[in-house]
Design a protein that fits this description.
- This protein has 507 residues and is mainly beta.
- It has a domain at 371-504.
- Helices cover 10% and strands 39% of the residues.
- It has five helices and 36 strands.
- The strands form nine sheets. Strands 3-2-1-32 form a four-stranded antiparallel beta sheet, with no helix packed on it.
- The two termini are 19 Å apart.
Length: 507
């Protein structure tokens, strides 16, 4: 549950480079507390959510609360550790992998347009109003025209595209809570929008043309004609290449930097759907009703495997272990890509929804995470804290005047109550937390210097000190709380604009 200031919230994906070999070696994501690949299994009829490590038939984790009946998995927030989904009634909810609890993002169903970035959900509601929902706030904006496409961005904003027949498309860049668009661009009528992983470029289709737009200033980078009616497009994670599926039995490859069609990849059949491996090693191609998936090695541009499996909104997916996860009758199977050998079979999993995510929450904690910090380390973190606060405000919104003061009436001892208000006084060690069915705390740091800990606590409204020991030496913990629920503690931690972690207090 820890969120160190030094850990980036963005995923550090290891991109594979194929050097003449159709089968790149399996990828090992950063160890020692780094992100790892996880397979999430959510029952469509509602029930306990399960997490699996690719290549293992054991269950790594199960949710404490059951998920409601679910129709779609929308996204995953690696910072909050929250899976965002849509229930059978169309309403959004989150499943926290930290404590296994369900959190509702509202009671109204989502509109016809839905796009997500982390825990931020963009959707259209009545009278064509655009809405952004996060665990913190709800933001609305009424665009001048009815939007027909949304592209979420990493900074908490989005590209809102409105197309008028016979006129063209208008791309507007918004960044909540700004009430007016940051920029706009006029294009011919454009569809099939795709974004690079870094969100520096978006691709769109206008008739038989491929259009590339730079996000930061909404500038059209280039336009390239493609022969044949375009059915699907997909980009590499870096955005250096765009794959275009047409009515022909071939994929056309457009080079971003050469700004031209570079080559073509022959396919055994026509395809209508493309899906890129997050590591950039493999491209999957398939079609509804085809019951075959073609695996293309990005490095060599060749079809290296044909897998007999249906194409769905969630599966197939490629794991970093060079395996592919597919439905097989009533089961879900993980197979080696090149050999086709079955590695894992999840019985009766075909009716469930699956998602491959990257997260660090199940990694063993590194021993040095709570190493004693120097006074200089706290002082030098000001710039990082400022950037962290900006990220939190952009991605989740602002909690107006929210202090980190928990239910202090549940604390025993005057020192706790006064400390929670002043942010300086240490609480009594081991003080009981009476009066709360649940008690959740927010932690910020463990420091060996009391003066440094006091300065840190003084800069966090509602924080206080708790004396502790680390490896037999005195230490000071900067905490806040308790709170009656995990959600309340998470909300207070986000409102602090500082790195934090949430933990359940003892009785």
């Amino acid at each position: 549950m820890r969120r160190p200031a030094s850990r980036s919230i963005h995923l550090a994906l290891a991109l594979l480079t194929a050097c003449g070999d159709d089968a790149p070696p399996p990828v090992t994501l950063a160890g020692g507390g780094g992100f790892e690949a996880l397979l999430l299994q959510v029952p469509t009829d509602g029930g306990v959510v399960s997490v699996h490590r690719p290549g293992s038939d054991s269950v790594l984790w199960r949710s404490r609360e059951p998920a409601p009946p679910t129709q779609a998995l929308l996204g995953f927030d690696e910072y909050l550790g929250t899976l965002v989904a849509q229930d059978s009634g169309g309403r959004p909810f989150g499943m926290s992998l930290r404590v296994g609890a369900v959190e509702r993002f509202g009671t109204a169903p989502l509109g016809p347009l839905i796009a997500t970035e982390g825990a931020a959900v963009f959707t259209t509601i009545a009278d064509t109003t655009l809405q952004r929902l996060t665990p913190i706030e709800r933001w609305t904006w009424r665009p001048p025209q009815t939007p027909d496409a949304l592209v979420p961005l990493l900074d908490g904003g989005a590209l809102v595209i409105a197309t008028t027949e016979g006129v063209g498309s208008v791309v507007r860049r918004i960044r909540p809570p700004n009430p007016t668009p940051v920029d706009s661009l006029d294009l011919p009528a454009t569809t099939m929008w795709r974004r690079t992983t870094a969100a520096d470029l978006v691709w769109g289709v206008a008739d038989d043309d491929i259009i590339a737009v730079r996000v930061r200033d909404l500038t059209e980078v280039f336009r390239e004609g493609v022969s044949g009616r375009i059915r699907a497009i997909e980009t590499t994670p870096s955005g250096d290449r765009l794959y275009v599926a047409t009515a022909a039995r071939a994929l056309q490859v457009v080079d971003r930097f050469a700004q031209e069609e570079a080559t073509a990849i022959d396919l055994p059949a026509e395809v209508t759907s493309l899906r890129m491996d997050p590591e950039g090693a493999y491209l999957l191609a398939g079609a509804e009703g085809l019951e075959q998936v073609y695996v293309i090695a990005v490095g060599t541009g060749r079809v290296i495997a044909t897998i007999n499996a249906p194409w769905g909104a969630d599966l197939p997916v490629v794991t970093p272990a060079a395996t592919i996860v597919v439905r097989d009758g009533r089961d879900v199977v993980e197979r080696e890509i090149v050999s086709g050998r079955e590695k894992v079979r999840h019985r009766d999993g075909a009716a469930d929804l699956w998602r491959l995510v990257r997260w660090d929450g199940f990694r063993p904690r590194r021993a040095n995470l709570d190493d004693r910090l120097s006074v200089d380390a706290v002082t030098d973190s000001a710039a990082a804290d400022s950037a962290f606060a900006e990220m939190v405000r952009a991605r989740y919104g602002v909690v107006a005047d929210t202090a980190l003061v928990g239910d202090t009436s549940a604390l025993a001892g005057a020192n706790d109550a006064s400390g929670a208000t002043a942010g300086l006084g240490p609480s009594a060690p081991g003080a009981p937390l009476s009066g709360l069915a649940e008690a959740w705390m927010v932690g910020f740091a463990t420091l060996s210097e009391e003066a440094a800990a006091r300065r840190l606590a003084a800069g966090i409204r509602g924080a206080r000190l708790v004396p502790a020991t680390r490896d037999g030496a005195p230490a000071w913990r900067v905490i806040a709380g308790p709170y009656a629920s995990r959600e309340a503690a998470e909300r207070a931690g986000i409102a602090s604009d500082r790195p934090f972690w949430v933990f359940e207090a003892g009785p």
